[in-house]
């Protein structure tokens, strides 16, 4: 059993299925927003880390879930910090136009989970959490903004010796 | 305290003036300042401010208002801000919030953003009626205040064009649950209400703790 006082961070993965390839003019406004919005994330209060492709500025070139599915993986100090960036910054304007660029989600497209501070989640680990959420619904292992769990709740449910889990 | 009891606390006219003053400032307000604004003695203001705090309508804290600290700075003063919680009374009982949440959930899942925004834009235009587009930022403040947005001017020194920001989101609870959907709806409503062809424009520019829309004066073409 882990002491709930151990410092933790919140990891998030969100995925989106593109309506058109990134070089299509119909998604150009999204592509143009990538650099300024990513820069805003990097400077946002509580931002810890985000996945960036080797030699790139973002993770849009990585397609672990299919050729037309882009992923966004990041780590934040708190759930509030992530929420404020996602919905109370320039990122909201991008979200508002999401239907123009991405297909509607049938399954969960965003998953949150707690990680020990300093842990850098891998894409495989993130995808596992998303699959957990899709298969079992929200739990302390994999949850959403609408149904979130505290780090203490996650720690209670963590199997012993699982170093990547709080 | 039940909502109806909390709201009844505002029946006293002095209390109501104090409450409205604190709310309108959008920041911590001390007893002296509130007393002066309401035109009553400090002790009376303090009594009513604490009644409002007890009813859960305001929250109080303490702060050194003088800016000094350390020995000699004096006792911290009591300051007040509006409480975050919502209060409402409906007679007979109505539950539009659950209806709004269910409709928003269904719209989100079905991806109905475009249809919702079109309806919101039409509603905004209908609310405006036969009047032309909003004529300027002062008129925008008036229009937005009437709809509960709690607008305030945010003019940058040295820049001719100013802006109006809003402290309150009238759709707060559903906007928190479905931000892109409901904030997009709100923007479309304001575009309809203020018009998009006149001297002011509504634009999404979200900040923590406020309405996600800013209304700006369009720079006059030179």
**Overall pLDDT of chain A, averaged?**
91
Helix content of chain A: 25-40%
Provide the structure class of chain A.
alpha+beta
**Overall average pLDDT of chain B:** 92
Q: Outline the biggest β-sheet of chain A.
A: 4 strands, antiparallel
Largest interface: A-B, 15 and 17 residues
| CATH topology group of chain A | Alpha-Beta Plaits
Number of domains of chain A: 1
Helix content of chain B: 40-55%
The helix count of chain B comes to: 9
Number of helices of chain A: 6
Secondary-structure element series of chain B: HHEHHEEHHHEEHHEE
Describe the 3D structure:
The complex is a heterodimer of chains A (166) and B (222). By secondary structure, chain A is α+β, with helices and mostly antiparallel strands. Chain A has six helices and four strands. Chain A is globular. Chain B is an alpha+beta fold and 222 residues long. Chain B folds into two domains: 3-82, Orthogonal Bundle (Arc Repressor Mutant, subunit A), CATH 1.10.10; 96-217, Muramoyl-pentapeptide Carboxypeptidase, domain 2 (2-Layer Sandwich). Chain B is 46% helix and 14% strand. In chain B, the strands form two sheets. Chain B has a four-stranded antiparallel β-sheet with strand order 4-5-7-6, covered by helices on one side. In chain B, helix 6 packs parallel to helix 9 (179-194). Chain B is globular. The termini of chain B are far apart. The mean pLDDT of chain B is 92. Classes of the chains: A alpha+beta (166), B alpha+beta (222).
Key features?
heterodimer, A: 166 residues, alpha+beta, Alpha-Beta Plaits, four-stranded antiparallel beta sheet, 4 strands, 17% strand, B: 222 residues, Arc Repressor Mutant, subunit A, Muramoyl-pentapeptide Carboxypeptidase, domain 2, 2 domains, three-stranded antiparallel beta sheet, 9 helices, 7 strands, 14% strand, WH_DNA-bd_sf (chain B), Putative ArsR family transcriptional regulator (chain B), ArsR-like_HTH (chain B), WH-like_DNA-bd_sf (chain B), DUF3291 (chain A)
């Amino acid at each position: 059993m882990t002491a709930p006082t151990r410092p933790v961070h919140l990891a998030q993965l969100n995925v989106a299925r593109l309506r058109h390839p990134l070089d299509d003019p119909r998604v150009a406004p999204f592509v143009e927003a990538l650099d300024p919005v990513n820069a805003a994330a990097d400077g946002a209060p509580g931002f810890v880390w985000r996945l960036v492709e080797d030699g790139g500025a973002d993770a849009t070139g990585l397609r672990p879930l299919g050729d037309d599915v882009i992923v966004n993986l990041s780590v934040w100090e708190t759930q509030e910090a992530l929420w404020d960036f996602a919905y109370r910054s320039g990122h909201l304007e991008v979200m508002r136009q999401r239907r123009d660029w991405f297909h509607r989600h049938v399954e969960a497209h965003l998953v949150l989970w707690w990680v020990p501070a300093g842990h850098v989640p891998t894409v495989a680990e993130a995808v596992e959490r998303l699959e957990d959420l899709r298969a079992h619904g929200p739990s302390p292992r994999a949850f959403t903004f609408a149904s979130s769990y505290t780090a203490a709740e996650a720690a209670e449910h963590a199997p012993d010796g699982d170093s990547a889990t709080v | 305290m039940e909502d109806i009891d909390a709201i009844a606390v505002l029946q006293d006219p002095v209390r109501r003036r104090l409450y409205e003053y604190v709310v309108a400032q959008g920041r911590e307000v001390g007893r002296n300042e509130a007393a002066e604004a309401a035109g009553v003695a400090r002790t009376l203001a303090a009594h009513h401010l604490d009644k409002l705090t007890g009813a859960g309508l305001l929250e109080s804290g303490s702060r050194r208002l003088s800016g000094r600290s350390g020995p000699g700075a004096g006792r911290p003063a009591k300051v007040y801000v509006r409480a975050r919680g919502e209060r409402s009374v409906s007679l007979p009982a109505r539950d539009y919030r659950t209806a709004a949440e269910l409709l928003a959930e269904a719209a989100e899942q079905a991806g109905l953003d475009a249809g919702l925004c079109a309806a919101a834009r039409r509603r905004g235009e209908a609310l405006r009626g036969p009047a032309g587009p909003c004529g300027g930022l002062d008129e925008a403040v008036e229009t937005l205040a009437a709809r509960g947005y709690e607008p305030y001017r945010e003019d940058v020194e040295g820049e001719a064009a100013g802006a109006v920001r809003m402290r309150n989101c009238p759709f707060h609870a559903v906007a928190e649950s479905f931000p892109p959907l409901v904030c997009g709806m709100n923007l479309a409503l304001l575009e309809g209400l203020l018009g998009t062809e006149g001297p002011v424009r509504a634009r999404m520019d979200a900040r923590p703790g406020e309405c996600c829309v800013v209304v700006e004066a369009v720079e006059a073409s030179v």
